[in-house]
Design a protein that fits this description.
With 385 residues, this protein is α+β, with helices and mostly antiparallel strands. Helix content is 24%, strand content 20%. It is built from seven helices and 16 strands. The strands form three sheets. The chain has an eleven-stranded antiparallel sheet with strand order 1-2-5-7-9-8-13-14-12-11-10, with helices on both faces. A three-stranded antiparallel sheet has the order 4-3-6, with no helix packed on it. α2 packs across α5 and α5 crosses α7. It is globular. The chain starts with 19 loop residues before the first strand and ends in a 7-residue tail after the last helix. The structure holds zinc ion (ZN).
């Protein structure tokens, strides 16, 4: 692997929090992260005694010759759990009557390999040709991260120490997954709300390790590379300086992070969270930055939930520098949080222009969204009802 963006293993206060490791009945890895170090030392993970079918073979990758983009065909995902009732939730802790994906009776944060992965199981270096008609195993790894044992919570309901545990788990996973053979990019994300295709209500996110660099990341790398050649400067730093100077779209700025609605936001709600210094990924954040991020992120989610009378569906997407792309050093870690909600009862649907052409037509100005979010963040009871 390259040294440009190797996983950060720092000593002392900035060291990444390590999990307690266990295996599930079908061999998948399950990791327990705790809010307090003392819990970690006393915890012995219970065995998973379920009878589980063998893991599926990996999906297949095909390349679209018109765009050069890879598509993963994961037929086994058709059988996955879809909005189960709470008493069949696979992410709740196990109890005397029921065994779930998490064998423990209680947990803080768990990460485990997805039973119905889009990428994996298996990771190895792969040579793929651009010849038409070829297919390849869609290797990589897909993980589920549960933010807590309480089925009824959402991320915005978590307390600050728990949010920090989640940030630490994301950082530890980014470091470890980036070091796996064949993994090109690690993507942590959360889909919240049945309106945007969530299949489980239990508060959780996902971590994808792709065997290629994703299309939107390639576009960003291309822009950043051109900007460097033309100006000698880093693109995201210039974006940040531009937004801070303009001021009208800034939602919040702390010592370590800036939260803003981007100048050309494509979605009715779109917020970016960018570290004030150049850092490639979550694994590269210092302990102080991770603490601040937990704070900033919780406030943002509560603000988003305060925009309307009911919780707003969102996609929270962590853009991280790819593992070994030649221009990876130009890409700065950032969050893009988007929601299609454009009014109390209205969602923006990606129709012809957006879905077919990737050409967005927006109906809310970014300055308006930023002003609404600033007001929502200032509301002390911003938590979702
Ligand atoms: Zn649950």
């Amino acid at each position: 692997m390259s040294t440009m963006n190797s996983p950060t293993e720092t000593a002392g206060a900035d060291a990444l929090r390590q999990p307690v490791r266990a295996r599930m009945a079908d061999g998948r890895e399950l990791l327990y992260f705790f809010d307090h170090p003392g819990q970690h030392e006393d915890f012995v993970p219970p065995a998973d005694l379920r009878e589980l079918p063998e893991r599926p073979s990996p999906a297949r990758l095909r390349r679209d010759p018109l765009t050069g983009e890879w598509v993963s065909f994961a037929a086994h995902r058709q059988g996955r759990t879809h909005l189960p009732p709470a008493d069949e939730c696979p992410l709740c802790p196990s109890g005397p009557e029921r065994s779930t994906e998490v064998a423990a009776a209680q947990y803080d944060v768990v990460v485990f390999e997805n039973r119905f992965p889009s990428f994996g199981p298996g990771q190895q270096e792969q040579q793929r040709s651009e010849a038409m008609g070829e297919t390849y195993p869609a290797e990589g790894r897909c993980e589920v991260i549960a933010f807590g044992a309480d089925h009824g919570d959402s991320f915005a309901d978590l307390d600050v120490p728990r949010a920090r545990t989640v940030v630490d788990a994301w950082a530890q996973r980014t470091a470890e997954l980036s070091a796996l053979p064949g993994v090109e990019q690690v993507f942590a994300f959360e889909n919240r709300g049945a309106q945007i295709g969530v299949t489980l209500h239990h508060p959780h996110g996902q971590i994808y390790s792709y065997p290629y660099v994703t299309p939107r990341t390639l576009t960003q790398l291309d822009q950043a590379q051109r900007h460097r050649e033309e100006t000698g400067r880093n693109l995201m730093q210039d974006v940040l300086d531009f937004e801070v100077a303009a001021g009208t779209r800034i939602v919040e700025r702390t010592e370590y992070f800036t939260v803003f609605v981007p100048f050309a936001a494509r979605m009715p709600v779109e917020v970016h969270v960018v570290p004030n210094r150049h850092v490639a990924d979550l694994a590269g954040l210092t302990a102080r930055e991770r603490s601040d991020l937990a704070d900033v992120y919780l406030r943002l989610l509560r603000g988003v939930d305060a925009l309307y009378a009911t919780p707003t569906p969102y996609i929270a997407a962590w853009f991280q520098a790819p593992v070994r792309h030649p221009a990876a050093g130009e890409l700065r870690l950032h969050l893009q949080l988007t929601s299609p909600r454009r009014a109390e009862e209205k969602l923006k649907y990606l129709a012809g222009s957006e879905a077919a052409m990737g050409a967005f037509i927006a109906d809310v100005t970014p300055e308006t969204t930023a002003a609404r979010l600033r007001a929502a963040l200032a509301t002390p009871t911003g938590a979702s009802a």
